[in-house]
Amino acid sequence: LRTTGRRSLRVQAGDRILSVSTGLVVWVGPYRGFSRVILIESENGYTYVYGGNEETLVAVGDRVRRGTQIGLLGRNAHQGIPQLYFLVYRDGVPVDPSQAPRS
Q1: How far apart are CA 20 and CA 5, in angstroms?
Q2: Mean residue pLDDT across the chain
Q3: Does residue 1 carry a pLDDT above 80?
Q4: What are residue 45's phi and psi, to 5 degrees?
């Protein structure tokens, strides 16, 4: 993935999705318009959500380290463009992803 600005990414279908933190995979599966989604809980209480995967490479119960490839980016089902959804929560409350720890 290549950054093109503070919050936008230029991506292509098939790009590797890497975990930004170490943690436990707690959910993997399709979710509404987000293609396949992966949720990773870190030891410091953050939950990292990666949506838009064409293919997931982890399973519930897997432990991942920062930098582990967890999926391959797909295309948005409605617009047909590659789109990564990255969200972060702490104790169920949304957190600005740019402020979340990367460890």
Answers
A1: 18
A2: 88
A3: no
A4: 90, 5
